[in-house]
Amino acid sequence: xxxxxxxxxxxxxxQLRHNHSSRRIIAGIDIAQRLSGISLKLLAFERLLTDxxxxxxxxxxxxxxxxPGSRRADEDKTIKEVRHLVKRIKEKFGxxxxxxxxxxxxxxxxxxxxxxxxxxxxxxxxxxxxxxxQLPLEYVFTKSTPAPPGVVISSEFSVVSNxxxxxxxxxxxxxxxxxxxxxxxxxxxxQEKEGRRCRDAAFVMSCTSSQxxxxxxxxxxxxxxxxxxxxxxxxxxxxxxxxxxxKSNLITTTAAFLAHEKEIxxxxxxxxxxxxxxxxxxxxxxLLDLNGTIIIKEPPGxxxxxxxxxxxxxxxxxxxxxxxTVLCSDPRNTVYVVSGDSQENVMKAIGDIPxxxxxxxNGACFAPALKAGETERSWKYFDLxxxxxxxxxxxxxxxxKYTARSNGSFVKLTHSSIGWSYYSCDPEWGSLQASHxxxxxxxxLRSFDVRFVMxxxxxxxxxxxxxxxxxxxxxLREVEAKSKKNAIDFILCMGDDVQDEKMFTSxxxxxxxxxxxxxxxxxxxxxxxRGHSISATSVSMEEEGADSMEEEFxxxxxxxxxxxxxxxxxxxxxxxxxxxxxxxxxxxxxRLGGLSDSTMSDEVMAGIAV
Length: 610
What we know:
Blueprint: H1 7-20, E1 24-31, H2 38-51, E2 59-67, H3 72-93, E3 98-104, H4 110-119, E4 122-125, H5 135-142, E5 151-155, H6 160-163, E6 168-170, H7 175-187, H8 190-206, H9 209-229, H10 254-265, E7 267-268, H11 271-279, E8 284-289, H12 300-303, H13 318-329, E9 333-338, H14 343-350, E10 357-360, E11 365-367, E12 380-382, H15 388-405, E13 410-414, E14 417-421, H16 427-444, E15 450-455, E16 458-463, H17 468-482, E17 490-495, H18 501-513, E18 526-528, E19 533-534, H19 540-544, H20 546-555, E20 562-568, E21 577-579, H21 582-592, H22 602-608
Helix pairs in contact: 1-4, 2-3, 2-7, 5-8, 13-21, 15-16, 17-18
């Protein structure tokens, strides 16, 4: 704090502002070595000026490259590459867009650093591997009140990204993502800048170097103690070759034998068999998951630690959408898309197909297909016996506390679930916070009939009764009740994660109910948007009498029932078959809709092949 009052700082600050007049300043001080990511930063800056020409006359990058001489070969190679990039940027956009300087030594004098921080609108650090870099902390402190706030752009591969909650995080290898973050930082309004500064200023001012050192030493001590305490390698069984013998592979129980046999029988879904069964049946039901099943998932490298959890946005491929429309147009088909996402996101993805039924929040709320003349969907809800408003009053303040301390986390609300996503956090820190969160909420919510679901970097609080099997069985019972002469003879159920397993088992449960109402488990009550009760389909069997239902079933069992359950990706599942990925789902839907996947446009095929 005393250093900010040095007379030389005012002089350097005035000089910097004079040199760059009214341009916005992106600052950076990096060691000229490969791991610093300085070349990736310059590539992103070059792309920014190319993709956003408006910034060519409004922004300048002030970059200091340090040459400590500790790794000469690395530094020589890196600085040659950096010089080439700087020269290329100046030749393409002019000398005023970048102010580059090479400095012999491992650091820049403090007065020059603080002067640069005072005038910089954005600090950009993009290492591909780094410990704790104190320069961003120094920048945040320099920008504390009453100075105007700045924005830090940090690499997700650096420790500082886990320390500064207000920083914008980037993957330096994803140039387009970095460009987008730079543009966001340059156009960010003052209110958001102030909010991001408030997240970090208190931490930077209160966490001293001595405190940081003590915390690191305590963590090392704890890790060492755990390692030494768990070292029982001498007691491990080994084979004659000296390698550890894995007892888990031994089949010593009936359950293990059945699991082994199931794995052997677990086969890839035969699309031709599904098509033949489809063509020979008259009353068909489709139950399809959304993200990862209908919507293609991106490979990990494209969404690593982003807030989009593994799917290519909320857009269904046009040809797949067309195939669903064709399937829905057949009066013999009932198609439902069941998702764990919110109603808004589900409707955005699939709501433009009026004849498809939709279910959101893992089936807690659902809307049947629109009938002729209808323009707005009528949503229905399962009454799961939980006062959700009271649950929110307890959960949301706790989640706010964990979100504030975990950079990259956020709260996700749907109709009947409250989620805390730590997918974009540091993996170890996020998992640690998630375990503490569950313990805290378990105690706070012990009087409510709820449970906790941990999947894909999310902790969710949901009603204990809620699962996708409720909506799956409800749809099947409704279709069966409406079809007095033609029993359901074709079921296709597909999903990709743990939440979809209940859909698979509900199919088997529904089949076991056929002809014997004693096996039917009552479903939770269904209410409309105003909270009024709607008579549940599940009681229709009792209303009509078990004997008559059994007689009707016996009369309708001349035709076989084809039930296909398939999981996306080969994994442990209650489904009988699997497909490799969502591309196989797209191919199947196109075949069933009478559309060959060879007719798909080159653009869509490229998107699926990503």
